[in-house]
């Protein structure tokens, strides 16, 4: 499954707001393989000290975006990150300049490093577990709609094969991709997840994408 982050115009009812490229808060995103089937996307502290040679990172500056491939990253991480980078460029109508560099000491690599401040990373403070919720992402009506399915519980029976669901445990977020969901729902899924988290008290929670025809032990433990 290919997963992209995409910006969706919308209001409070959907839980997501459109953000113009020149209004973006610079962010550093980590692409990490959870296992052979699932990829995790995490926003990490905006510092060069967050970089790890075993993973791939995207530096999103709004009108510019850079992909940094650590020397020990996997081919799948490179591929997924490059898909994401291409989608960013497409979503922003060519107003986002993209560039890919490897951890090789080249001028491009040095440029990437120079864009990140060399600041200490604050130790994580234990967060309270937030409210459990499930949102349904669907374009069945002809337009993309995000609606609340349930809260304070995560019933497995609320998930179907026809749509995409955002499952928030209060500490982590799962994006559940139904086998029969539309192409647009699938392409926009990770974008909705990221934008949703920015509205919560746990904006840096890890995001895991799970397809309906694949198993996730972590998600199975959460669902009732």
TrEMBL record:
Pfam families: Gelsolin. SMART domains: GEL (SM00262). GO terms for cellular component: actin cytoskeleton; cytoplasm. Coiled coil: none annotated. Residues 39-106, 157-216 form the Gelsolin-like domain. One of its GO terms (molecular function) is actin filament binding. GO terms for biological process: actin polymerization or depolymerization. PANTHER family: SEVERIN, VILLIN. This is Gelsolin-like domain-containing protein. It comes from Schistosoma curassoni.
């Amino acid at each position: 499954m290919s997963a992209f982050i995409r910006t969706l115009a919308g209001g409070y009812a959907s839980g997501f707001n459109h953000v113009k490229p020149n209004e973006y808060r610079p962010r550093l995103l980590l692409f990490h393989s959870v296992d052979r089937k699932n990829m995790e996307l995490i926003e990490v502290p905006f510092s060069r000290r967050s970089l790890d040679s075993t993973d791939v990172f995207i530096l999103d500056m709004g009108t510019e975006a850079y992909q940094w491939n650590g020397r020990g990253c996997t081919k799948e991480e490179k591929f997924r990150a490059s898909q994401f980078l291409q989608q960013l460029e497409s979503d922003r109508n060519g107003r986002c300049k993209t560039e890919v560099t490897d951890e090789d000491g080249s001028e491009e690599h040095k440029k990437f490093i120079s864009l990140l401040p060399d600041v200490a990373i604050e130790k994580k403070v234990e967060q309270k577990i937030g409210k459990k919720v499930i949102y349904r992402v669907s374009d069945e009506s002809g337009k993309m709609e995000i609606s609340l399915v349930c809260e304070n519980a995560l019933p497995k029976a609320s998930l179907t094969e026809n749509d995409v669901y955002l499952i928030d445990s209060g500490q982590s977020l799962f994006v559940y991709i139904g086998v029969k969901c539309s192409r647009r729902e699938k392409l926009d899924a990770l974008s909705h997840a990221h934008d949703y988290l920015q509205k919560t008290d746990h904006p840096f929670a890890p995001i895991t994408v799970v397809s309906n025809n694949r198993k996730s032990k972590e998600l199975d433990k959460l669902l009732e």
